[in-house]
Specification:
The structure holds 2 protein chains of 2 kinds. Chain A is mainly alpha-helical. Chain A contains 13 helices and no strands. The chains are: A mainly alpha, B alpha+beta. The interface between A and B is large, with 43 and 36 residues.
Chain lengths: ~290, ~425
């Protein structure tokens, strides 16, 4: 080993050690837990712990609530990712327009929900979404739409949560997109305009290819974010009504920490990990096709 | 999207007065002052205590007397019910339990089994507690907790709404309840009669207790909900929602049940004694002459009901068990229990304390009758989870997502699954 390499190791060792301690070790332990029946009985007495192989996974696949949680999570991701990214991109495009004034003010206002405490905002949104006195139902009533039980009807609760999540997180990607949009080459834009390209055509052929890599990044992060949705249903609906907003992570939290079935919960974590890995690899493949990576 | 909770608080950073700039010395000084404040060089370290809900909010008011008598300060932390179970278990696993903790009696068996709580060392602490309540604090013949308060369910009713429908007081049978509900619903079609929140299992389990359903079988290792009694209770529970007498609502939707009761959103509310305190505190919204209490109606008149009784335990890892037991002795004394009753309405677990004149009011009388008539619940670690899982299926039944028979079958399957580990351990003779 050369002196230079030794120095490099000396500098990276502390970080590597920390990563090994707080990331690799717990992940390995979780993996090990997922093949045991660690439950409250094992917490009481280690002798009650048994090796069950793939028992936890088989168990999970026969648990209706796990499938329901998986379905809910898929629904959240399929609807939520386009909704959140669409809202971010739309807001970023609006803010990017030359005619908009007080841009910093708008940026701050739209970014504010992202950095506001989730519990505080959830309480406000629960009032907004209230069936009887909620602002949203009042507004809908003005158009003659009957009151909707946003947080109580299992068929609409997902949309209520999505509305809240989108409002809460779109500011982050909006800032990212604003940065990407400012890098769109203006000479290309001018040329397209001179050639008579419409607004839509300019967006499709000039803006979109330029912000493609950013879009991919936002999509990857949003998908993994939505697949790990937890806090919003936890504070808004406690997973209800009728488990319609119980996500995989919520299910894992309940199993693991509420009931201390850590074996089962680790199995859920592993499945979620594989799931996110698959979706992300598909996304990167799509990204490669468009040469965004 | 994932919530990254921050529990630490920013340290108190001192600013130098004139320059408005944080100097390094001021920062270090501030930080060391903070550390000194945490370690508290003089006097004994405070005892820690966790309690849920109102008990947690108001227990500090019982502490000055204790600190004055013993010189031991007490730090009380209030824990919300919805997060209590996971917080306590996680704290046990992490070795961070407080000296004294509050547990609902249904959890005592579980926490005793995992070795989180220490057995009661002084028999006099249990001496004058209601025998039925003391029994639920016992695990394997040993007392593990000191009952603090009893919380039998009674029905709170709106006198004016019932009088309008021709009822001076609510009926005591299920059939009578339904008849009254029809009369009220005819007059107030937009409102409801009962409030039974779909994520709180108490109402359903009270009904199951009243029909005498034995919910588990084979030494509490299998579900037993498909019995005549179980069906009767479920059918009645579901009918209240199907007929529009009770709203299909979760606790997250009825954020302020007291206000909803005051507005006449519902007329009957099965609840426990802290509701008396809520109503008294908010008498501007709901004056005392508008409401009353009565025993919960049963299939054939009032009967044994479930209760959310509360006990205090000393954690097995407490370094100062003697001080901790002294604290429990103080807060469960007759005087403290009666003070607590005046503060937040909770009812004392000691028989002697019930002789006090403050408990002689007619509003309390139904509680007094109900407290002597409770159903024994299975004392197994999984019971809390079973209650919640049963309620989850019950909610699906209420919403019409699954029928009565399929729902009951699903409950039995689910309960069998939850009790799987217990079954193997019982069969292997590892637990009784």
């Amino acid at each position: 080993m050369t002196r230079q390499e030794r120095t490099a190791f000396a500098f990276t060792m502390p970080v590597l050690a920390i990563i090994a301690l707080v990331f690799v070790l717990p992940t390995t332990l979780a993996l090990a837990l997922s093949v045991t029946d660690y439950s409250i009985y094992a917490l009481a007495d280690w002798h009650n712990l048994r090796f069950v192989g793939f028992g936890n996974f088989v168990d999970l696949l026969t648990t209706p609530l796990f499938w329901r949680a998986l379905g809910n999570t898929a629904l959240f991701a399929v609807l939520g990712v386009p909704m959140a990214i669409g809202a971010s991109l739309f807001a970023a495009l609006l803010l990017h327009d030359r005619t908009v004034r007080w841009k910093p003010l708008w940026r701050v206002a739209l970014f504010a929900p992202y950095v506001t405490s989730i519990v505080a905002t959830a309480i406000v949104w629960r009032f907004v979404l209230g069936t009887r006195f909620g602002l949203l139902n009042r507004a809908l009533a003005a158009f003659g739409i009957p009151a909707i039980d946003w947080l109580g009807d299992p068929h609409v609760s997902v949309f209520a949560i999505l509305l809240f999540v989108t409002w809460k997180i779109f500011g982050y990607n909006m800032i990212v997109f604003t940065a990407a949009l400012s890098a769109v080459p203006q000479d290309l834009m001018e040329a397209a305009r001179l050639d008579g390209a419409s607004r839509l055509a300019r967006f499709r052929h000039v803006t979109l290819p330029a912000i493609g890599p950013t879009l991919l990044l936002a999509a990857v992060l949003s998908v993994s974010g939505f697949l790990q949705l937890f806090a919003e249903p936890y504070v808004m609906t406690l997973g209800g009504p009728a488990q319609s907003t119980t996500t995989v992570l919520y299910f894992m939290f309940d199993e693991g920490f509420k009931w201390w079935n850590l074996g089962q919960a680790s199995a859920v974590a592993l499945i979620l990990f594989v799931l996110i890995l698959c979706v992300t690899s598909v996304q990167t493949r799509i990204g490669r096709c468009y040469e965004w990576l | 999207v994932v919530d990254r909770r921050r529990t630490c608080h920013a340290g108190a950073v001192e600013r130098t007065g004139h320059a408005h700039q944080v100097t390094r010395r001021a920062f270090v000084g501030g930080a060391s002052a903070l550390l000194a404040g945490c370690s508290r060089a003089s006097g004994p370290a405070p005892l820690s205590m966790w309690a849920m809900s109102y008990q947690g909010d108001y227990a500090p008011m019982l502490m000055p007397a204790f600190t004055a008598a013993t010189g031991i300060p007490v730090e009380v932390q209030s824990v919300p019910w919805t997060a209590a179970h996971e917080k306590l278990l996680t704290a046990f696993a992490g070795g961070a339990l407080p000296d004294v903790l509050m547990l609902p009696n249904g959890w005592i068996d579980e926490f005793a089994m995992i070795g989180a709580i220490a057995p009661v060392t002084r028999p006099d602490l249990i001496a004058s507690v209601f025998p039925g309540v003391a029994r639920t604090a016992r695990v394997g013949g040993r007392d593990f907790a000191v009952p603090w308060s009893v919380a039998p369910q009674v029905q709170f009713y709106r006198r004016d709404i019932l009088a309008e429908a021709g009822y001076p007081a609510p009926p005591e049978t299920w059939a009578g309840w339904r008849e009254m509900a029809r009369a009220i619903k005819r007059r107030r079609p937009d409102d409801f009669v009962f409030l039974m929140l779909l994520n709180w299992p108490d109402a359903l389990f009270t009904m199951l207790g009243q029909t005498g359903a034995t919910m588990l079988r084979e030494h509490d290792t299998r579900g037993n909900f498909r019995t005549a009694q179980g069906r009767e209770a479920f059918a009645f529970y579901l009918s209240l929602f199907a007929d529009g007498f009770a709203p299909r609502a979760l606790s997250t939707e009825v954020q302020d049940p007291v206000a909803a009761f005051a507005q006449g959103f519902f007329a009957i509310w099965p609840s426990s004694a802290t509701t008396v305190y809520d109503f008294t505190r908010r008498r501007a919204e709901i004056p005392a002459h508008l409401w009353g209490t009565a025993r919960v109606a049963g299939p054939r008149g009032p009967g044994p009901g479930s209760a959310l009784d509360i006990s205090l335990c000393v954690s097995a890892t407490s370094r100062r068990p003697a001080d901790a037991w002294a604290l429990i002795r103080h807060v469960t004394s007759d005087a403290s229990e009666l003070r607590f009753q005046r503060l937040i309405g909770v009812l004392p677990a000691r028989v002697d304390a019930w002789r006090a004149p403050q408990l002689a009011s007619p509003v309390i009388a139904p509680f007094a009758a109900q407290v002597r008539d409770t159903t024994p619940t299975p004392l197994i670690p999984e019971w809390e989870r079973i209650r919640i899982e049963v309620q989850i299926v019950a909610e699906r039944m209420v919403r019409g997502l699954v029928g009565l028979e399929d729902g009951l079958a699903a409950i039995d399957t689910r309960v069998d699954h939850i009790l799987g580990k217990r079954r193997t351990l019982v069969q292997a003779g590892r637990i009784a």
